[in-house]
UniProtKB/TrEMBL annotation:
Protein family (similarity comment): Belongs to the glycosyl hydrolase 16 family.
GO terms classed as biological process: carbohydrate metabolic process
InterPro entries: Beta-glucanase-like (IPR000757), ConA-like_dom_sf (IPR013320), Glycosyl_Hydrlase_16 (IPR050546)
Signal peptide (residue range): none
A single GO molecular function term of this UniProt record: hydrolase activity, hydrolyzing O-glycosyl compounds
Domain of life: Eukaryota
Residue ranges constituting the GH16 domain according to the UniProt record: 104-433
Residue ranges, annotated region (Disordered): 1-30
SUPFAM superfamilies, per the entry: Concanavalin A-like lectins/glucanases
PROSITE patterns recorded: GH16_2
Protein name listed in UniProt: Gram-negative bacteria binding protein
Organism: Microdochium trichocladiopsis
Length: 462
């Protein structure tokens, strides 16, 4: 069967065949259609016919020429001068007020005379003439999951300074995971312990694991060193240069406690936190992670009435965090203020002023307006014996360095960062330990999961 030309596989042949078979009389219409098609195709492709150029109009300036009246020079409005007076006058007043505020703030904290009283770079190890070990297992009131030791795996020195490193209890003292949860007795003064305990209660020195009672051997071991009775400060300056640890639920702190509880048990005699931070990623807590450091004062007639929220503040670092390099964490303290910072005084983490105009701490805490938790009216004023408005921060304090792990006091808020325990439940320690497969990979080697302290300096006021 003969194929039609337009069915041929050769497009050129089909085109020629179609052209050859069309009638001659169709040529005129074809030319017109072709012309229309070409114009339409050109328009679709963005090609247009060259427009006809029109002659340009000559530019005429609207500027006035010759002599003309200038009434605004002859009849000036006197209010125009007042506008300038107000503008420049208020600008000068604003600049003066701003300069005074800057000078006053600088003068209040930057013009103190300090004399170096003590320093330690740990080149000679952990000097027993300067440092004490605290050895306990009860969480020191925060419910932390570590117990502190004298073990050199938890506190040691090298060329970089002092290292405070948390370790796993099961790896250090050779007990099994089952014993950690049930059937093991730990006594710090004998088997499994350091042979000593600095705590003052049985619960601080011994514990028996019991699954039914949710009693767990502290799953983490760490260290806590202080200068109590050796290096104290009442007004002066402290600077600690350190690199902070990275890892979930790590809690490094540089802080101070009163040498003598002159006003009663905590927090009546006060607490000064120069620096505390979280080892978790900076993106998982509303108050920051390892990119944020905080300064805090604790004070109040009772633990339930601690007003630390009113005297706490944090400062975060952009693009980096405090685990990547060494930073200096400082405190300046006089009868007129307490001021904490990192690296320099311009990076202020906390500023708390004192003075008779502000009132004493009892009135600042508004304790007279609240009811005593036991229903006996307003709580007693623990600072009534002092005439100093900054009491309890008018006594000598000593320095503490430690790395805690976890806790049930709210420092790690429930519901954030996959926190595996709930503060108010009595199974917090076991819940934390059971989630070790989640947090343990975030801990690095000893250098990264521990706090490294390069130096400590303490100044008195001259």
């Amino acid at each position: 069967m003969k194929k039609h030309a337009f069915l041929s596989r050769d497009p050129a042949s089909a085109h020629r065949s179609w052209q050859g078979s069309r009638p001659a009389s169709f040529g005129g219409a074809s030319s017109y259609a072709s012309s229309v098609f070409e114009k339409d195709f050109a328009a679709r492709k963005g090609v247009s016919e060259k427009p006809v150029e029109k002659p340009r109009k000559r530019f005429r300036s609207s500027k006035l020429t010759g002599d003309y009246e200038k009434p605004w020079l002859k009849n000036k409005d006197p209010r125009e001068k007042l506008d300038k007076v107000f503008f420049y006058g208020l600008s000068l007043i604003g600049a003066g007020i701003g300069a005074y505020i800057c000078w006053d703030r600088w003068n209040s904290v930057g013009n103190q005379n300090y004399c170096l009283a003590w320093e330690d770079d740990f080149s000679g190890g952990i000097n027993k003439d300067s440092w004490n070990y605290e050895v306990q297992i009860d969480g020191f009131g925060t419910g932390s999951f570590d117990w502190t030791t004298t073990d050199p795996r938890n506190a040691y020195t090298d060329a970089n300074g002092l290292h405070i490193v948390p370790t796993l209890t099961t790896e250090d003292i050779g007990i099994s995971n089952n014993q950690l949860i049930h059937g093991y007795t730990l006594n710090l003064t004998s088997g499994g312990g350091d042979g000593t305990c600095t705590g003052t209660s049985n619960s601080a020195c011994s514990i028996a694991s019991n699954y039914t009672l949710n009693s767990v051997i502290p799953p983490i071991r760490s260290a806590r060193l202080n200068t109590k009775g050796k290096h104290m400060l009442r007004y002066g300056k402290v600077e600690v240069t350190a690199k902070l640890p990275a890892g979930d639920w790590l809690w490094p702190a540089i802080w101070m406690m009163p040498q003598d509880n002159a006003y009663g048990d905590w927090p009546a005699s006060g607490e000064i936190d120069i620096m505390e931070a979280r080892g978790n990623s900076q993106y998982v807590f509303r108050n920051g992670g390892r990119d944020t450091v905080s300064g805090v004062l604790h004070w109040g007639p009772t633990a339930e009435l601690d007003r630390f929220v009113e005297t706490s503040n944090g400062l975060y670092m952009r693009r980096k965090d405090f685990t990547q390099d060494y930073h200096t964490f400082g405190l300046e303290w006089t009868k007129d203020f307490i001021f904490t910072y990192y690296d320099n005084v311009l990076k202020q983490t906390l500023y708390v002023p004192f003075g008779s105009k502000l009132g004493d701490m009892y009135s600042r805490g508004r304790y007279a307006q609240i009811a005593n938790p036991n229903g006996y009216g307003a709580p007693n004023n623990p600072w009534s014996s002092s005439s100093n408005p900054n009491a309890p921060f008018d006594q000598a304090f000593y320095l503490i360095l430690n790395v805690a792990v976890g806790g049930t006091n709210g420092f790690f808020p429930d519901g954030y960062a996959g926190k595996p325990w709930v503060d108010k439940l009595n199974n917090s320690a076991s819940a934390f330990w059971n989630a070790s497969s989640a947090w343990k990979p975030t801990w690095g080697d000893a250098d990264s999961r521990g706090m490294t302290v390069k130096s400590v300096k303490m100044w008195n006021t001259c």
